[in-house]
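>> received
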Amino acid sequence: MGRSAKIVTTIGVVVILIIFYHFISTKLMHRETKKVDMPVIERVDLTEEWKEYRPQTERFSVTFPTTPQHAAQMIPVPDGDGFIRYDMYLALSRKGATFMINVIEYPATFNMADVDSLLNGVMREMIGGNPSNALLNSNHGTFDGNPCLEFLLHNKKATMKTMVVQKDHTIYVLSAADITQELAEEGFKKLENSFKIQ
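>> returned
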């Protein structure tokens, strides 16, 4: 992977990781406090109704358990022309899971030829974001005819299932995180099955 591509990928992944670790840590601490300090008085119905979400950009559609928070940023291309646009959509489930879709849109002049390097670069940077991260598995494939990479990441606090998809000059990063591998994969499957690139 070229220097510019690595820097750009790193910037995007750092944003993803900061948000992931902040929200998942906060959510898990909150859940643990409830388990330890709050006696269970009655059963609470945590049934969720997943609803379709389309961003204003109309780049994709997906279902989320709650309305996502959105953040966007434009960053100049290192050693190049134009800007990379980052959009992050984050939804926190009532059951404690975290769901994210990150969209990284490169300018038309950016070299996207080395697909494997771009996809693997996202995975490597996410693994390196925390010393306790462990890669449980990874698999290259296609999603709706586009190259993708799925992988499962685990650390002391959570498990995160992620899929990185490249379509033209855009990279989509779908992630679901929860306290167990089973829950993370179950949540991710809902996200993946409803996700459509427009």
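>> Residues 3-37 form the longest helix (35 residues).
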